[in-house]
Amino acid sequence: MMKKLLMICAILIGVAGLASAAPTTLITFDEFPLGTVIDTEYVPLGVAFIAATYNQPVISMNGAMPTQPILRPDGGPSTYRGDFWIQFITPASEVQFDSGYWDGLGTGVINVYGPYMNPIASLTNTTTGVNVTSISGMGPVGYIYFNSVGDPAGADIDNLGFSPIPAPGAVVLGAIGVGLIGWLRRRRTL
User: Fold this and answer.
1) Secondary structure (3-state) at 2
2) DSSP string covering 157-170, please?
3) pTM (2 decimals)?
4) How many CB atoms are closer than 10 A to CB 114?
5) N or C, fewer C-beta in 10 Å, the chain?
6) How many helices and strands, by DSSP H and E, does the chain display?
7) Can you give the residue ranges of every domain in the chain?
8) Pairing between strand 156-164 and 83-102?
């Protein structure tokens, strides 16, 4: 009976530690009504949007994108041609989003920065239409600069998915659970 109880406790500690590491977050921009100007609305989910040249981005519709609604730059005189920053409150280990609808090759700028604004990568749209941008294995991502000013009609983003780097406490709790299971197995208690 004691063996089973110890094993259950060790498994629960390990699972609790791994489960507290935040799961991948997906923002589809249908969380707020159309026309909502976005800045700190998504901070509870771990991301903020910051105006760059003109105004804050806004939730809108774009019939050229496969899913609706989208987040578009508010480029002042040109509705979809603009730029904005994405800031991850907790640095992300991986990021993915749809961008488009791109009318020209290489007309978009997507710059990726670490948590301390250290440059990680400079990307662009590789096709016309909708591009899926995936960023992983480059180190912690703190900021992304999105710029569609160079595209004839501009572009927007949708389906922003990201995985925050787990808090150190979650990693430690998971390691304790795994270590406890190993120790119990070594003692042949399990």
Assistant:
1) helix
2) EEEEEEEEPPPHHH
3) 0.77
4) 15
5) N
6) 2, 9
7) 21-162
8) antiparallel
| Architecture field, domain 21-162 | Sandwich (2.60)
Of 53 and 23, which is predicted with more confidence?
53
- Which residues are registered as beta bridge partners of 146? 84, 110
Tokens of 126: 């590789």
Tell me if the bond preceding 69 is cis, omega within 30° of 0. Answer: yes
What SS3 string covers 5-52? HHHHHHHHHHHHHHHCCCCCEEECCCCCCCCCECCCCCHHHCEEEEEC
- pLDDT at residue 75 in the model: 77
Report the distance separating Cα 82 and Cα 78, nearest Å. 7
Handedness of CA 25, 94, 160, 82 (dihedral sign): positive
Q: Region 102-114: what's the mean pLDDT?
A: 96
Residue 150 has pLDDT above 50, yes or no: yes
- pLDDT of 154 strictly over 80: yes
Q: Which is it for the CA torsion 22, 28, 29, 33, positive or negative?
A: negative
Quick count: other Cβ atoms within 10 Å of Cβ 137?
A: 7
Whole-number Å distance between alpha carbons of 55 and 79? 10
Q: What angle do CA 150, 124, 35 make, to 5 degrees?
A: 60
